[in-house]
Write a structure and sequence with these properties.
single chain; 2 strands; globular; two-stranded antiparallel ribbon; disordered N terminus; alpha+beta; 2 helices
Length: about 90
């Protein structure tokens, strides 16, 4: 009984600290500085010739661990990015 209660308290504490971040808009100055696109499948490769279709936020080392279609990024504090997104500082996950 005590172990079950301790597990419940631990899960509750973890949930209480979960932070929901607002989505990064492509018009945000930081997004514009990184040339962030929320949907990498719509990237014009003439504008961004370094982009490769295998690249997206979901495979970038800067994407924070977690669940869901929007997550934090180490380079953009206080905002979430789309896992389908891309920016010019994309770095492959090792």
């Amino acid at each position: 009984m005590v172990l079950a209660a301790a597990g419940f308290v631990a899960r509750g504490a973890a949930t209480a600290h979960a932070e929901v971040l607002p989505a990064l808009s492509e018009s945000d100055p930081v997004a514009r500085a990184f040339n962030y696109r929320a949907d990498a499948s719509k990237i014009d490769t003439r504008e961004f010739p370094e982009y490769d279709p295998s690249q997206s936020c979901s495979s970038c080392t800067h994407l924070k661990a977690g669940e869901g279609a929007e997550r934090g990024c180490d380079l953009i504090p206080g905002k979430s990015v789309s896992i389908k997104g891309w920016c010019q500082v994309w770095t492959p996950r090792s």
